Known about the structure:
Distance between the termini: 96 Å
Number of domains: 2
Oligomer: single chain
Strand order of the largest sheet: 1-3-2-4-5
Low-confidence stretches: 1-15, 134-142
Structural class: alpha+beta
Helix content: 25-40%
Mean pLDDT: 80
Number of helices: 11
Amino acid sequence: MAVAKLSAASLPAHASPHPMANPGYGKRSAPDQLRRTAYDFAHLPPREAAVAAYIDRLPDGADISVKTLAKTLPYGQCALRTALNRLQQQGHLRRGRERLANTEGIRWITRSWFSRTPRGDDWWAAFTRGDVPEEPPDQPRRTRSRAHVLLAALGRSAPVLSLSQADCAALAPLVTDWFARGASDEAVLHALTSGLPTPVHHPAALIRRRLTDKLPPEPPLPRPPRRHLECAECGVPGPPEALLGGMCGGCRNERAPARPATLLPAPVIHTRASEIRAAMSLKRQERAPV
């Protein structure tokens, strides 16, 4: 039954490829997702499942705006807007901005992050900080971490530093310590590949030594978030803890909690009452006939 529901995702496929967004924009796949199966979106209603399955198979950078999807999928813009909002509520989608640093400075880029694996609000909150939390132990087959991926690809930048699977697993916690202190992938790669001796006899030992000796100091202040999330309904940015299910409290029809009444000490009340009585007495004297 679930497979039949998801079959609608293959209907809009045309000979022409799906439009891509402007460079730097469009779909971005969330990290550490589980392997694709035929039942990834079986928990969703048929329309949402079809939309999610279609987006999941699009490459990063694809234009997944409502207008573009409406030209490709057999749904109108209103239906697609509702479907995307429900995907946010189910933890498959978040929209916001990401901070990018380059030689020209820092700029913020609009992003739409999609996760085949449904994520909770806590996961998305960690994602905005640049952290990639591990999957729960009961999840089938954990994917490689950000640190493991960096180490596994190290041989592409410096062939003499090619590592084995066991080496990557052993060294990944040291790279994670760098990420926890705000280091970027580029900073880690530079520390590991610059000024290499000739020859390199033991790549894993050299990398371990550099990761330990060159570990940057802890930042004196909390790291600024790498990403900001926005409400799916009104687009207002806010902290992740205020955007439960991707929506702000106002769009969830939640009222702000009433402030508790502040009780004044008895001496302050008596003093204030005496001042009021004195002021009233003065008014009566001013009105009395001379």
